Amino acid sequence: MTRRTEGERLDDAGAQLVESLSELGLTPNQSRAYVALLERGAATATEIALRARVPRPKIYDVLQSLERFGLCASGGGDRVARWEAVAPEAAIPDWIRRREQERRGQAERDQALATELVRSLPRPAEEVLAGDAPLIEAVIGRKRIAEAYEAVVTAARRRLDVVQAQPMVQSPKRWNLLEKDALARGVEVRVLYTPEAAIDPARYLPLAEAGGQNRTSNKLALKLAIRDGEEALVALRDPSFAERDDAGLTSIRIVQPDLVSPLQTLFRREWRRARPLPEGG
What we know:
The chain is α+β, with helices and mostly antiparallel strands. It has two domains: 6-113, Winged helix-like DNA-binding domain superfamily/Winged helix DNA-binding domain (Arc Repressor Mutant, subunit A, Orthogonal Bundle), CATH 1.10.10; 126-276, 2-Layer Sandwich (Endonuclease, Chain A), CATH 3.30.870. Helices cover 48% and strands 18% of the residues. It is built from ten helices and ten strands. The chain has helices at residues 6-23, 28-40, 45-52, 56-68, 88-120, 125-129, 142-155, 177-184, 205-209, 257-273, and strands at 72-76, 81-85, 136-140, 159-164, 188-193, 213-216, 223-227, 231-237, 249-254, 275-276. The strands form two sheets. An eight-stranded mixed β-sheet has the order 3-9-8-7-4-5-6-10, sandwiched between helices. Strands 1-2 form a two-stranded antiparallel ribbon. Strand 4, helix 8 (177-184) and strand 5 form a beta-alpha-beta unit. Helix 1 packs across helix 2 and helix 2 crosses helix 4. It is elongated.
């Protein structure tokens, strides 16, 4: 039979004690060091590190934390400090009382923080919509439509589906900026272009390079943007107005899920039919 060392026998005997002490909130190193102190009596930090199998660079931090917890005390001569365990019948009940006080203090801090968050956090979108905010809103003019589109893209958290067609309300300097920001947030971005909207590769290549998905179709029925299946911006065009007349640009903002759902279905159908755009333009 293989002979076992004293340290191995002590490890076997103290394993359950170490596990129980760890359940009371001590780290494994702290638990082993306290058991080793009880078994060894007064000892130097180096002796405790060897017996408890705690790395030497960590042993002083471990012993100092045990001293703060009331589980051991340091003393000895002028040259080498020695450490000694406080008897468990005194140390353990005192440690439990400390833990209870810490938990009560943490619970009070948690409750105070929760109360402050309830006052400070914004209300859920459903509650806002239940008030005076319209479920369907007309947005008229190039500037207001661009602002509404920016709000839709900025609010996206999971998916953004867009149909791009003429006329473009954004200036070329703003092309793809909002969509690339959405991609950086982890939003899946899919954009369908009419052939006229995809003539200039600068309209879609930067988005593709950033991870967006681009396709083209000549069967697109309307220009729109949908975020997360919850909100849609649908562009309308009055053919009686001139091409450059802002008054002829009108979009409808929809925040009613039952109305957004058919638009999402329409987009998915057209996306499956569409062709990928060439990477070279």
